[in-house]
Design a protein that fits this description.
It contains one helix and eight strands. It is mainly beta.
Length: 143
Protein backbone atom coordinates (compact mmCIF):
# COMPACT_ATOMS: atom_id res chain seq x y z
CA UNK A 1 0.00 0.00 0.00
CA UNK A 2 1.37 3.41 -0.91
CA UNK A 3 1.38 6.34 1.48
CA UNK A 4 -1.04 8.22 -0.78
CA UNK A 5 -3.73 5.59 -0.16
CA UNK A 6 -3.22 5.39 3.60
CA UNK A 7 -5.65 8.25 4.49
CA UNK A 8 -8.40 6.77 2.31
CA UNK A 9 -7.94 3.32 3.85
CA UNK A 10 -7.96 4.82 7.36
CA UNK A 11 -11.17 6.74 6.62
CA UNK A 12 -12.80 3.59 5.26
CA UNK A 13 -11.82 1.60 8.34
CA UNK A 14 -13.14 4.35 10.64
CA UNK A 15 -16.45 4.43 8.76
CA UNK A 16 -16.75 0.65 9.00
CA UNK A 17 -16.04 0.78 12.73
CA UNK A 18 -18.69 3.49 13.23
CA UNK A 19 -21.31 1.51 11.32
CA UNK A 20 -20.40 -1.72 13.12
CA UNK A 21 -20.59 -0.03 16.52
CA UNK A 22 -24.01 1.34 15.63
CA UNK A 23 -25.54 -2.11 15.14
CA UNK A 24 -28.38 -2.59 17.65
CA UNK A 25 -27.64 -4.83 20.61
CA UNK A 26 -29.82 -7.85 21.35
CA UNK A 27 -32.88 -6.75 23.30
CA UNK A 28 -32.15 -3.03 22.89
CA UNK A 29 -35.06 -0.96 21.65
CA UNK A 30 -34.43 2.25 19.79
CA UNK A 31 -36.73 5.21 20.44
CA UNK A 32 -36.13 6.34 16.84
CA UNK A 33 -35.51 3.50 14.39
CA UNK A 34 -35.51 3.25 10.62
CA UNK A 35 -39.30 2.74 10.56
CA UNK A 36 -40.20 5.69 12.79
CA UNK A 37 -37.53 8.18 11.67
CA UNK A 38 -39.55 9.94 9.03
CA UNK A 39 -37.53 13.15 8.80
CA UNK A 40 -33.81 13.89 8.77
CA UNK A 41 -32.78 17.22 10.22
CA UNK A 42 -29.83 18.58 8.27
CA UNK A 43 -27.97 21.85 8.23
CA UNK A 44 -26.69 23.51 5.11
CA UNK A 45 -24.14 26.27 4.69
CA UNK A 46 -24.17 28.55 1.66
CA UNK A 47 -20.50 29.56 1.50
CA UNK A 48 -21.24 32.57 -0.71
CA UNK A 49 -23.71 34.24 1.66
CA UNK A 50 -22.42 32.58 4.88
CA UNK A 51 -26.01 31.65 5.70
CA UNK A 52 -26.74 28.45 7.65
CA UNK A 53 -30.17 26.88 7.11
CA UNK A 54 -31.92 24.01 8.85
CA UNK A 55 -33.31 21.54 6.33
CA UNK A 56 -36.07 19.09 7.24
CA UNK A 57 -35.89 16.28 4.70
CA UNK A 58 -38.57 13.58 4.79
CA UNK A 59 -37.09 10.14 4.16
CA UNK A 60 -37.49 9.15 0.51
CA UNK A 61 -38.50 12.64 -0.72
CA UNK A 62 -36.36 15.13 -2.60
CA UNK A 63 -35.76 18.55 -1.01
CA UNK A 64 -33.76 21.44 -2.39
CA UNK A 65 -31.07 23.63 -0.89
CA UNK A 66 -29.80 26.17 -3.39
CA UNK A 67 -28.96 24.17 -6.51
CA UNK A 68 -28.66 20.94 -4.49
CA UNK A 69 -31.33 18.24 -4.53
CA UNK A 70 -31.10 16.10 -1.39
CA UNK A 71 -32.72 12.68 -0.98
CA UNK A 72 -32.49 10.97 2.43
CA UNK A 73 -32.74 7.20 2.01
CA UNK A 74 -32.62 6.33 5.74
CA UNK A 75 -32.04 8.11 9.03
CA UNK A 76 -31.19 6.41 12.32
CA UNK A 77 -30.52 7.61 15.85
CA UNK A 78 -29.33 5.64 18.85
CA UNK A 79 -31.51 5.49 21.96
CA UNK A 80 -30.69 7.96 24.77
CA UNK A 81 -29.11 5.31 27.04
CA UNK A 82 -26.37 4.60 24.45
CA UNK A 83 -23.57 6.80 23.18
CA UNK A 84 -25.16 9.49 21.01
CA UNK A 85 -24.96 8.93 17.25
CA UNK A 86 -27.18 9.88 14.37
CA UNK A 87 -26.50 8.50 10.90
CA UNK A 88 -28.18 9.10 7.57
CA UNK A 89 -27.69 7.76 4.07
CA UNK A 90 -27.92 10.69 1.65
CA UNK A 91 -27.86 11.13 -2.09
CA UNK A 92 -27.12 14.70 -3.16
CA UNK A 93 -27.23 16.05 -6.71
CA UNK A 94 -26.20 19.45 -8.07
CA UNK A 95 -28.97 20.57 -10.43
CA UNK A 96 -27.67 23.75 -12.07
CA UNK A 97 -29.94 25.41 -14.65
CA UNK A 98 -29.09 24.40 -18.21
CA UNK A 99 -27.02 21.39 -17.12
CA UNK A 100 -27.95 17.79 -16.37
CA UNK A 101 -28.04 16.94 -12.63
CA UNK A 102 -24.65 15.76 -11.35
CA UNK A 103 -24.19 13.48 -8.33
CA UNK A 104 -21.99 15.20 -5.73
CA UNK A 105 -22.49 12.84 -2.76
CA UNK A 106 -23.87 9.39 -2.07
CA UNK A 107 -23.18 7.72 1.26
CA UNK A 108 -23.50 7.72 5.03
CA UNK A 109 -23.08 10.89 7.08
CA UNK A 110 -22.44 10.78 10.83
CA UNK A 111 -23.58 13.60 13.12
CA UNK A 112 -20.73 12.99 15.58
CA UNK A 113 -18.05 13.08 12.85
CA UNK A 114 -19.17 15.32 9.99
CA UNK A 115 -15.69 15.37 8.41
CA UNK A 116 -15.51 11.56 8.25
CA UNK A 117 -17.80 11.40 5.23
CA UNK A 118 -18.25 14.96 4.01
CA UNK A 119 -19.76 16.30 0.83
CA UNK A 120 -17.23 18.23 -1.24
CA UNK A 121 -18.80 21.18 -3.03
CA UNK A 122 -17.50 24.63 -3.92
CA UNK A 123 -20.60 26.53 -2.76
CA UNK A 124 -22.48 24.36 -0.23
CA UNK A 125 -21.83 22.23 2.85
CA UNK A 126 -24.48 19.84 4.21
CA UNK A 127 -24.32 17.82 7.43
CA UNK A 128 -26.63 15.67 9.58
CA UNK A 129 -28.03 16.96 12.88
CA UNK A 130 -30.82 14.59 13.97
CA UNK A 131 -33.61 12.19 13.00
CA UNK A 132 -37.18 12.95 14.04
CA UNK A 133 -40.57 11.33 13.70
CA UNK A 134 -42.51 14.44 12.62
CA UNK A 135 -41.89 16.96 9.86
CA UNK A 136 -42.55 19.94 12.13
CA UNK A 137 -42.75 23.26 10.35
CA UNK A 138 -41.37 23.55 6.87
CA UNK A 139 -41.71 19.87 5.92
CA UNK A 140 -39.82 19.99 2.61
CA UNK A 141 -37.26 22.71 2.46
CA UNK A 142 -35.12 25.05 4.46
CA UNK A 143 -36.09 27.39 7.25
Amino acid sequence: MTLRRAPAVLALLCAAACVASWAPRAGAQSTVDSQSAKVAVLQGLDKVTARVSTIRAPVGEAVTFGTLVIVVRTCRARPPEEAPETTAFLEIFDDKPGEPPRSVFSGWMFASSPALSAMEHAVYDVWVIDCTTAAGSGGSGSE
